[in-house]
Every structure is written in structure tokens, then in C-alpha cells.
Amino acid sequence: MNLGEKLKYLRKQHNWTQEQLAQHLNISRSQISKWENGDLLPDVQSLQKLSNLYKVSVDFLIGKHTTKKELLREVNLLYQTDRIDEKMLDIIDYLKQNPNMEKTIYSLTQLPVKKRRHLESIIIKLVKEFSDAIK
């Protein structure tokens, strides 16, 4: 998918017309049309505005594929830590592929600390015992 196709796709995902997007960006509708048709490329400031508006990276917009190493660096910078590693990215990927687990773990995070810790210990023990049993 090229930049123009991606911009059109993202605009339609938000159910916006070219005119509505142009209003969000404070530019003309014809500018949006030229971007989507590939007749003109957005400038850097417009790419930043689009990135913020659609909540995607500029790299995503321009089609740059982020490596796991680059993603880890960016996530660690974002969260000001160095504790997120490839295992954590694999966990995040697993959760995104399993929405019920994602919802369950999210609901666990919303519990009071004492109740959450009790449930966490039960879940850890259950998963460990099951893992050991199927080895």
C-alpha cells in the first residue's frame, strides 16, 4: 500500500470525507485529493499532523517497516525504561491475537491491589502446573 492509498484508507476508517479531513488539518480538500491520488506528497509538518490525528507513526505512514530492535528502542524511550524486551513484545503480540485474554488481563489490572495479587498468584501457579504437566 503506497502513501496515498494508506491516507485514503485511514481517512475512510474514520468515516471522514476529504473535506472533513482538510478541515482537521486546516488545508484545502484538493490538497487531500492530490495526496491520495499520488500527485503530491505531504510535507513533513503535514505528515506529523496526520500521524497525530490518526495515532500512527510517521514511519507507518511512509511505509517504513520497523524492526523489533527499533520498536523496542522506541517503546523503552516512550516508557522511560530499559525493562521491555523481546519477550514483552511477544506477550503483547499474543494478547493482541487473543482478545479474551487481553480483556481478562485488563480487568485484572482494574482490581484493588490485594485482590489482584491474590488472583495473580493463582494464575501463575495454574499456568506453571499446566505447563509442567504437558512437558
The low-confidence parts are none
Largest sheet: none
Radius of gyration: 21 Å
Helix percentage range: over 70%
Spatial gap, N to C terminus: 43 Å
Pattern of helices and strands: HHHHHHHHH
User: Average pLDDT across residues?
Assistant: 91
What portion of residues belong to β-strands? under 5%
Shape: elongated
Structural class label? mainly alpha
Tell me how many strands there are. Answer: 0
DSSP summary: helix tally: 9
Explain what this protein looks like in three dimensions.
The protein is mainly alpha-helical and 135 residues long. The chain contains nine helices and no strands. The protein has helices spanning 3-13, 18-25, 29-37, 44-54, 58-62, 68-78, 86-97, 99-109, 113-134. It is elongated, with a radius of gyration of 21 Å. 6% of the residues are buried. The mean pLDDT is 91.
Keywords:
single chain; 135 residues; mainly alpha; 0% strand
